[in-house]
Write a structure and sequence with these properties.
- β23 (about 320-325) and β24 (about 330-335) form a beta hairpin.
- The chain has an 8-stranded antiparallel β-sheet with strand order 3-4-32-31-30-29-28-27. Strands 5-6-7-8 form a 4-stranded antiparallel β-sheet, with no helix packed on it.
- By secondary structure, the protein is mainly β.
- It has helices at about 40-50, 55-60, 75-85, 100-105; strands spanning about 20-25, 30-35, 55, 115-120, 135-140, 145-150, 150-155, 160-165, 170, 185, 190-195, 200-205, 205-210, 220-225, 230-240, 245-250, 255-260, 265-270, 275-280, 285-290, 295-300, 305-310, 320-325, 330-335, 340-345, 350-355, 365, 370-375, 380-385, 395-410, 415-420, 430-435.
- The protein is globular, with a radius of gyration of 21 Å.
- Residues about 1-20, about 25-50 and about 440-445 have low confidence and may be disordered.
- Helix content is about 5%, strand content about 40%.
- Pfam families: WD40.
- Keywords: Repeat, WD repeat.
- InterPro entries: WD40/YVTN_repeat-like_dom_sf, WD40_repeat_CS, WD40_repeat_dom_sf, WD40_rpt.
Length: about 450
C-alpha cells in the first residue's frame, strides 16, 4: 500500500456556525456552500437537517440522506453530473486501460432488491486510511458494528440506539496472559471483522486487537510487526477445516499471520513478495485469497501458504475480496474500477468483469444465501448484483459521500443491507431491507 491518509478523518463533523456542504473524496474535497451560508438561521437549520430519514419520509419526498437540495445552489442531478465529471479515482499503477471496457459485462442496473428503511446520524463511521473500507459489520439485522473516532460502536436497529463497545483512545491491556500479548495505546483502527461474538481489529501502526463483544475488556492485543509504518491492512475470522476458529491478519510488511482463538498462539506465518492489502478464506477453510500491491491475485493453501493459482487480469492494486457461500466463486475488487469473478475450478481467466461508476471497488460482500453480491466504491455508489441471474441485473444505490463499509446481516439470508457514510456533515448509517415477492398471495387479492 503506497499511500496513507494522515489528516485524520476521525474528527470529521459539522462543527462551526456556517452550514457547509461537502463530501470527502479520495484525494480532495469537492464542496460548495449553500445559499444560506453565514445567515443567523444556518446553525439551527443544520441541527434540524441532522434528523433521521425514515422510509415514510423518503416516500413523501425527503432525500434519503436528508440533504436539503432545495436550499442549495445545485440540484441533486446537477451535483451528480459534476461528481461524475470531476471525481478522480486513485491509481498506483499506470497500466493502459485500453480495452478494459470491452471486457466488462453489460449489466441492467434498474432493479430494486433492497428497499430503503432508515438513515440515522446517531452513529457515524470514520475512516483513517482512504484505501481501506472494511469498517462495518452486521452480526444480525439488529446488531451493527462500526468505527467512530476512537470507538467501535454497536448500533441496535431495533432499539434505535448506539453504544460504545470498545474504546481505543487510551491504554489497552489484554485480559489473558498469553505469549505475545502486549499493551497498546491510542490505536487508530484501520480494519475490522466480526463473527459471532468475536471482534478483531487492525491498527494503523501494525496493531491487532481481539475482543468478545459480550465481555468487558480485550482478550488479546499485540503489535504484529514492531514497525510503526506497517499498517494492518486486513483481518479475517474463519473456520479451519478441523472446525477451529482462526484469526488472520495481513500487513504492509508482506506477511500474513494466523492465530488460534484458544490461547491466541501464532500458528502460521506466510511471506509474500508484496504488501498484502486483503485476505479472505473460502467457506470450507481450505483456500486463501491473497491480494495486495500487485496486479495479480493469488489463491493459496490456507494451511501451508503454498500458491495454488495466480489470477491475472486486473490492472492495479487490489483491496477487497469475497467468496460465494458455495466456495466456487471468488470476487476481487481493484483500483482499476472493476470487480472480477473467478471460478476456482478454472482460474485461467475471469468468468465476468463488473465495472464501477467512478472509483475502485473497495468493499465486497456476498449475502449469506449467495443470492446477492454488494460492491462498494470509495464514494457515492454501492452496486447490489443478482448472482442468481449471472450478475446481469443489479441495483445501484446512489449516495453522496465516502463509503466506510457495506455489509449484509448475517444469521439470515441477508435480510438487511447496511451502508456507512463518512462525511463531516452527512455522515450516517443507512439501512435497507430485502424486498420479498409473495406471489403465492396473489390468489387472495
Amino acid at each position: 500500500m503506497a499511500h496513507d491518509l494522515r489528516d485524520d478523518l476521525e474528527f470529521v463533523s459539522g462543527d462551526g456556525d456556517d452550514y457547509y456542504f461537502g463530501f470527502d473524496d479520495d484525494d480532495a474535497v469537492h464542496g460548495f456552500h449553500s445559499s444560506g451560508r453565514g445567515h443567523p438561521a444556518a446553525a439551527s437549520h443544520r441541527n434540524k437537517q441532522m434528523d433521521d430519514t425514515s422510509a415514510l419520509d423518503y416516500k413523501e419526498g425527503k432525500d434519503m440522506q436528508g440533504i436539503p437540495w432545495e436550499r442549495l445552489n445545485y440540484t441533486k442531478d446537477q451535483y451528480r453530473e459534476m461528481r461524475l465529471r470531476q471525481y478522480k479515482n486513485y491509481e498506483n499503477l499506470t497500466m493502459s486501460r485500453d480495452g478494459l471496457k470491452k471486457e466488462c459485462k453489460q449489466v441492467e442496473r434498474k432493479d430494486t432488491f433492497y428497499d430503503f428503511h432508515l438513515n440515522t446520524r446517531l452513529v457515524k463511521s470514520t475512516i483513517v486510511h482512504f484505501q481501506l473500507r472494511n469498517l462495518l459489520w452486521a452480526t444480525s439485522k439488529h446488531d451493527v458494528y462500526l468505527m467512530q473516532n476512537y470507538s467501535v460502536m454497536h448500533w441496535s436497529s431495533l432499539l434505535q440506539r448506539g453504544k460504545e463497545v470498545l474504546n481505543v483512545a487510551g491504554q489497552l491491556t489484554p485480559s489473558q496472559n498469553v505469549r505475545g500479548a502486549t499493551p497498546l495505546s491510542r490505536v487508530q483502527i484501520s480494519t475490522m471483522a466480526l463473527k459471532g461474538n468475536l471482534m478483531v481489529a487492525g491498527g494503523f501502526q501494525g496493531e491487532l486487537i481481539c475482543k468478545y463483544v459480550d465481555q468487558p475488556g480485550m482478550v488479546f492485543c499485540t503489535n504484529l510487526t514492531g514497525n510503526n509504518n506497517s499498517i494492518t491492512n486486513a483481518v479475517d475470522i474463519y473456520q479451519a477445516p478441523n472446525g477451529a476458529t482462526r484469526v488472520m491478519a495481513a500487513n504492509n510488511d508482506c506477511i500474513v499471520r494466523t492465530f488460534d482463538t484458544e490461547r491466541f498462539n501464532l500458528i502460521s506465518h506466510f511471506a509474500f513478495p508484496w504488501s498484502v492489502n486483503n485476505t479472505s478464506v473460502n467457506p470450507d477453510g481450505k483456500l486463501l485469497a491473497v491480494l495486495g500491491d500487485s496486479s495479480d491475485c493469488l489463491i493459496a493453501d490456507s494451511q501451508s501458504g503454498k500458491e495454488i493459482a495466480r489470477l491475472k487480469g486486473h490492472l492495479d492494486y487490489s483491496f477487497s475480496s469475497a467468496w460465494h457461500p458455495d466456495g466456487r466463486v471468488l470476487a476481487t475488487g481493484n483500483q482499476d474500477r472493476t470487480c472480477r469473478l473467478w471460478d476456482v475450478r478454472n482460474t485461467s481467466r475471469a468468468v465476468a468483469v463488473l465495472e464501477a461508476r467512478i472509483g475502485a471497488v473497495r468493499g465486497l460482500r456476498y449475502s449469506p444465501d449467495g443470492r446477492f453480491l454488494a460492491a462498494a466504491e470509495p464514494a457515492d455508489f454501492v452496486h447490489v448484483y443478482d448472482a442468481s441471474a449471472g450478475y446481469a441485473a443489479a441495483q445501484e444505490i446512489d449516495l453522496f459521500g465516502e463509503i466506510a463499509g457495506v455489509t449484509f446481516s448475517s444469521g439470515d439470508d441477508g435480510e438487511a443491507l447496511f451502508v456507512s457514510i463518512a462525511d463531516r456533515t452527512y455522515g450516517s448509517l443507512l439501512e435497507f431491507h430485502r424486498r420479498r415477492r409473495y406471489d403465492y398471495m396473489d390468489c387472495y387479492i
